[in-house]
DNA sequence: CCTAATCTCTTCTCTAAAGAAGAGGAATCC
DNA sequence: GGATTCCTCTTCTTTAGAGAAGAGATTAGG
């Protein structure tokens, strides 16, 4: 097993679409499983991981915005930012144009999380590097498009009526 | 925006590898975000989603095995299976060869979870369908290989010494 | 200017889920 | 066939995290 990354020029196509569906679902499960396991290994709760992903996708934002996107009221939001700040994942910066506001921005290198995710990153990097450039271009084209689709779907799950 | 799924025959390759890395990280964040949002919309806790993914990847197993893979002791494991069974996601089946054992198996259609994830599935299905067959083959080749990589990485996160 | 609205943070309370310890039934080994 | 081991489930206790309500500081509007 694990003789991956041979990557012949023409990977055999799946004949059966339902087989494709099962393959894709298992793939998503594995991605989620790995994300959860990594967060747990860092002592991060589910909400903390969620918020980090929100920040990763949405960029720096105020605690109010972060709380709204995470589905929390102001109390838990403050404590959430406290936890993330204490763990070194984010930083509070005063807003330049409104002194009531605070900007929560991700810190450059979340060391602990990066450390536990490093083995997977390395393996996936090798896997991606094993494809010829034109195939890798297809993969990254998909990644970029899928990111948008998932992000919008997640937003609609959060605010079903909007 | 959202003019996806045009998929020219040759998507432009990324010139900068660090750009690739950022694209990939954002993609993973979006996948995780969508998974969390879906679970939350169904009233599933983080552990419940984790366990469902374990079952999806590992197939039917005993509560003991599920608890071990989820990192729980026996008490919470029983309640976890109780919750999943009450919500209609899994079923307890007596083991045919050892009457002490119980097999936890996923139920065919977890209706609620499927319902909330359906919009994303549909959009991603359209996206995948928009690629010509040989490019789609590359994508599914990647999905299958990446599944193994993530699964093994998640296992090593759970049992760092093994 | 003085009032109203907005943003963050604090305190108190409450619920959901995890751990620890142990009971009961079933299989295995001598 | 009797003792030991194994698997699941139950009970009790504890902790982490969420909601509600309000205080303090700052901005906007009449």
TrEMBL record, chains A, B:
SUPFAM superfamilies registered for this protein in UniProt: Winged helix' DNA-binding domain
PROSITE patterns (alphabetical): HTH_MARR_2 (PS50995)
UniProt-annotated stretches for the region Disordered: 1-21
UniProt record, GO biological process: response to stress
GO MF: DNA-binding transcription factor activity
Domain of life the protein comes from: Bacteria
Biased composition (Low complexity): 1-19
InterPro entries hit by this protein: HTH_MarR-typ, MarR/SlyA-like, WH-like_DNA-bd_sf, WH_DNA-bd_sf
Domain HTH marR-type per the UniProt entry, residue ranges: 1-148
Protein name (database record): MarR family transcriptional regulator
């Amino acid at each position: 097993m694990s003789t991956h990354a041979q990557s012949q020029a023409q990977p055999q196509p799946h004949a059966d679409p339902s087989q494709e569906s099962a393959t894709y679902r298992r793939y998503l499960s594995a991605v989620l499983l790995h994300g959860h396991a990594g967060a747990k290994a860092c002592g991060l709760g589910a909400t903390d991981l969620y918020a980090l992903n929100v920040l990763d996708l949405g960029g720096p934002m105020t605690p109010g915005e972060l709380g709204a996107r995470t589905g929390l009221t102001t109390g838990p939001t403050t404590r959430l930012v406290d936890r993330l700040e204490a763990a070194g994942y984010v930083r509070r910066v005063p807003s330049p144009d409104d002194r009531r506001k605070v900007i929560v921005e991700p810190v450059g290198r979340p060391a602990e999380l990066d450390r536990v995710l490093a083995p997977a990153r390395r393996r996936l990097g090798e896997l991606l590097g094993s494809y010829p450039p034109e195939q890798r271009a297809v993969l990254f084209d998909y990644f970029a498009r899928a990111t948008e689709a998932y992000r919008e779907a997640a937003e609609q799950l959060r605010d079903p009526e909007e």
